[in-house]
Amino acid sequence: xxxxxxxxxxxxxxxxxxxxxxxxxxxxxxxxxxxxxxxxxxxxxxxxxxxxxxxxxxxxxxxxxxxxxxxxxxxxxxxxxxxxxxxxxxxxxxxxxxxxxxxxxxxxxxxxxxxxxx
Length: 118
Prior knowledge:
This protein is mostly beta strands.
């Protein structure tokens, strides 16, 4: 399973899942101090094989200036802005687990050659 790296306010943590809570409450996995953020502002949770950001706030969660309610995470880092399109971001990045090596490829069969006639 892929892991989730979260960076905020000079802190970096990595989570295995299944759910990471972002908000102002001290019991949050990612505690923030911005007054625009809700106590339990957003969740980043595993759905199937994908990490998904789910907004649970009063003031909204924004990515690239656009308010989101639900966002599957694919590719590189995503900056979440809590409570408005500006302010200190919470940056989430899915760390892809290395692929397990597959079975070795079998060698091609050796063909017997016909006896050599003189």
